[in-house]
Amino acid sequence: MATNTGLGIEGILAIGKQATNAYRTAIQATDKVPFLSESIELEDTILNHDYLYGGAAVLDQQVVFKPISGSIESYLNYTTINATPIPDEFVSSTLLIALAMGGAPVFDTGRNELVGIDDLDVFGTIAVDKGMDTVSTWETIGAFVKGFTISGSANEYIKLSSEIQAGQLVISGSQNTPAELRAMDDVLSDLLMFSEGCFRIGDQGGALASTDKMGISAFTLSYSNNLTDNQQASCDDQNTLGGSEAAHTVTTEPIKPCRNGFREVTFEFTVPRYEADTFIAWRDAGTKLQADYKFTNATTSYEFNIFMPYLKIEKVSAPVGGAEALTQTVTCRLFKINSLSDVTFTSGNAITGELGIETKDQRIAVLW
Q: How many domains does the chain have?
C-alpha cells in the first residue's frame, strides 16, 4: 500500500535499452529524461457478463486483454553525462529518438549518427517514480517508440513527444527503484532553444549553402513507424510470435509489435512572412529538395542536427486570417535518399534512410 501522495513535482522518468533477445526482461535505466508529462497506462479490454439470466443487472465482468500504450512529453536537450561516479548514465532525451529509429548508432567525428531501419526490433524499459512508494516504480517493459514528434516555435524550447507501445506494465517494478532513479544526477542540462537553430532548404542541384538559409518561425518533424496495433494471441511455446526471446506465455499481454506498412516522415514549417512563391513553384514542379536543420549551443558548441536528404512539398498555404501580416505554412514528405542528394552526416557518412539525426554533446561514445 502506498504511503505517500503522488506529486508531479516528485516525478522522475528514466529509460534504458533492452537486449534484442529479452523483450520481457526489464533493464536498469541509463538515461534520465527531462520530461514534462507521461501517460503510459494499461488500456484493459473488459467484457461484461451480459448474458440473459432473468434479471436487469449485469452480474460481473472480466479483463480479457491488457494492452499498454501512452506518450511521453519531454524537452529535447544536449546530452549531459552524470557527474557522479556512476558509469554510463546521462541526462538525455536522445535515447527515445534512437529507439524509434532503430538503427545501430555510429559514433564518428565526435558525433552519434542515427538512422532508421526496415526491421524495427529495438525497445527499452521505461521507469517512472511517481512519488507514491519508496521501494517500487512503474516499469514499462518491452517499450517500443512507435513514433515521435520534434517541434518548436519562436521564443520556446524544442520539445519531443514520443508515442509508446509496450509488452508489460508493472506497477510495483523493482529493477529500477526510486532510490536508484533519484541517485541519477540532477545536473543542469542545456535545452535546445528555437533561437539556436539554422534551417536550410534547396533543390538537389548542389550542396546546401548560406544562400539556402530560410527564416522560419515554427516547425514540426513527425516520424511514424506504422507498427501493428496491440495484438492478442494464445500461448506460444515455440516462440513464433516473439522473436528470439522467451515465448509468449501470458495470453492477456500483447505480442511484440512489428512494422505494419511504410514508415511515414513529414516536416512542416511556418514562414513568418508571405513574400515569395518559391515553395508553390517547387510544389507544382515536384522539385526534389534537400534540407538540414542544425542546432548549436553557443557556449558549449554542442550540436543537434536534423538531415533531410530528399523531400518534396505536398502542401503550401497562406490563409488570410485578418488584418495581420500573412504567414506561409509548408508541408513536406521525406523519402529515401537518392544519388542526387548532397546531404550527408558531418563525417561524410551517407544517410541510408529518409532522415538522419546527429548529436554532438557529452555522450562521447556510441549511444549503444
A: 1
Task: State the alpha helices, DSSP H only, in 148-207.
Answer: 178-183
Q: Which residue has the higher pLDDT, 6 or 96?
A: 96
| φ and ψ of 42, to 5 deg | -70, 135
Total-model pTM: 0.94
Residue 367 lies in a domain: no
CA-CA-CA-CA torsion sign (229, 230, 235, 239): positive
Rounded to an integer, the average pLDDT of 266-277 is 95
Torsion angles phi and psi, residue 236, rounded to 5? -135, 75
Residue range 65-93, pLDDT digits in tens: 999 999 999 999 999 998 665 567 899 99
Q: Considering all CA atoms of the chain, what is the largest pairwise distance in Å, rounded to the nearest integer? A: 79
Name the residue range of residue 236's domain.
Answer: 8-42+63-360
φ, ψ of residue 193 in degrees (nearest 5): -110, 150
CB-CB contact of 11 with 129 (8 Å): yes
| 141-157 as b/e: b if 16+ CB within 10 A | bbbbbbbbbbbbeeeeb
Give a yes or no: residue 366 inside a domain. Answer: no
- What are the cell numbers at 224? 511514424
- Give the pLDDT confidence score for residue 228 in this predicted structure: 94
In a domain, residue 322? The reply is yes
| Residue 22 contacts residue 122 (beta carbons within 8 Å) | no
Under a CB-based contact definition with an 8 Å cutoff, are residues 302 and 77 in contact? no
pLDDT at residue 37 greater than cutoff 80: yes
Rounded to the nearest integer, the mean pLDDT of the chain is 92
